[in-house]
Specification:
Radius of gyration: 19 Å
Number of domains: 1
CATH superfamily: P-loop containing nucleotide triphosphate hydrolases
Shape: globular
Number of strands: 9
Strand content: 5-15%
CATH architecture: 3-Layer(aba) Sandwich
Helix content: 40-55%
Distance between the termini: 51 Å
Largest sheet: 5 strands, parallel
Structural class: alpha/beta
Order of helices and strands: EHEEHHEHEHHEHHHEHHEHHHEH
Length: about 325
């Protein structure tokens, strides 16, 4: 792969941590190149078992990469598995003189082999990660799965426990609600390989409340113009649930919804989404379920705080009492 067109930064996660909006924001910057496939999963391939994919996930990542690349990559694809080196090179073929060339794949955080694979590819790469309160992260993922008909569970904690006990498990094989929030061990791999100066941990809560400041910090980290004015008007991947869950399941599992999205012009997709989903009367996380997750993640948050030399409970007040 040409050095001039080789990725030099990677956003490694986390799931439901704002990486979709970050993709759209960073893509605005004239000094940044991101491929038209938001999540390539290229460097986590060794940990991914395609034959065990959940049907819904297999449908999500189904794409003819040869055809897509040869046709000019006109549409942005949210997720695929770009395993072949020739395909990976192909999605970076439109790099011009951008200074920061990168990609965003959430599997790189949780898949153990990804850090070493990225290091072998580019030991000087810069690594970014957005860390979200693991309680809220798991709840947000649960709501997303309800929306996408990947879960029909009425009991949140039971859903997490059953998913955790599933065998086999892994990326695209089960939802990994609990595992995805165990940040300390996952992030430690990157610190050890790339060094602390080349890894930028960010907090989702800061990113949500002060996106301008966080993006300016990212630009400084990537050594690009931090004065660039980003357009924050687009709200990516916001929470909503189906107006008609039964109809939604039929549309999703039959593939009709996927086809409809592909055939609907981009300006009209928001109207399609509004017709199918609503953010009114959204369910809320119960205190009981929140307490269960707080107890589950208490030691994990302490380990993360020690790793970062920052008290994570200052960002995630639900854990504050456990640090007294």
């Amino acid at each position: 792969m040409s050095h001039k067109k080789s990725p030099n930064f990677f956003v490694i996660g986390v799931v439901k941590g704002g990486t979709t909006s970050m993709y759209h924001y960073l893509n605005q910057h004239p000094e940044v190149y991101l491929p038209p496939i938001k999540e390539t999963n290229h460097f986590s391939a060794k940990d991914i078992s395609k034959q065990d994919f959940l049907p819904g996930y297999a449908q999500d990542v189904s794409i003819n990469l040869d055809k897509y690349i040869k046709s000019g990559m006109k549409e942005i694809i949210h997720i695929a598995h770009v395993n072949e080196d020739t395909h990976y090179e192909g999605i970076f073929s439109k790099v011009n003189d951008e200074k920061a060339i990168g990609e965003i794949s959430n599997s790189y955080m949780i898949c153990p082999s990804a850090a070493q694979a990225i290091y072998d590819f580019n030991p000087n790469a810069k690594i970014l990660v957005i860390l979200r309160n693991p309680i809220r992260r798991a709840w947000s993922q649960f709501l997303m799965n309800l929306r996408e008909a990947k879960s029909e569970a009425a009991d949140f904690i039971k859903e997490l426990q059953e998913d955790h006990s599933q065998n086999p498990k892994g990326w695209g094989v089960n939802h990994q609600y609990l595992e995805l929030g165990k940040y300390a061990g996952q992030l430690k791999r990157y610190f050890e390989l790339f060094g602390r100066d080349n890894v930028l941990p960010l907090f989702f809560e800061d990113y949500k409340s002060q996106p301008e400041n966080v993006l300016s910090e990212i630009c400084d980290f990537l050594e690009i113009d931090s004065k660039f004015e980003f357009d924050f008007s687009e709200n990516s991947n916001s929470a909503a649930l189906p107006r008609n869950p039964g109809l939604n399941r039929i549309l999703v599992k039959s593939g009709i919804l996927t086809t409809a999205k592909k055939l609907t012009p981009k300006p009209l997709r928001q109207k399609l989404a509004s017709a199918l989903y609503t953010d009114k009367n959204m369910p809320t996380l119960s205190d009981e379920d929140s307490d269960w997750l707080r107890n589950y993640y208490t030691d994990e948050v302490k380990s993360l705080s020690d790793l970062l030399n920052v008290d994570a409970s200052e960002k995630w007040p639900q854990f504050a009492q456990n640090h007294e």
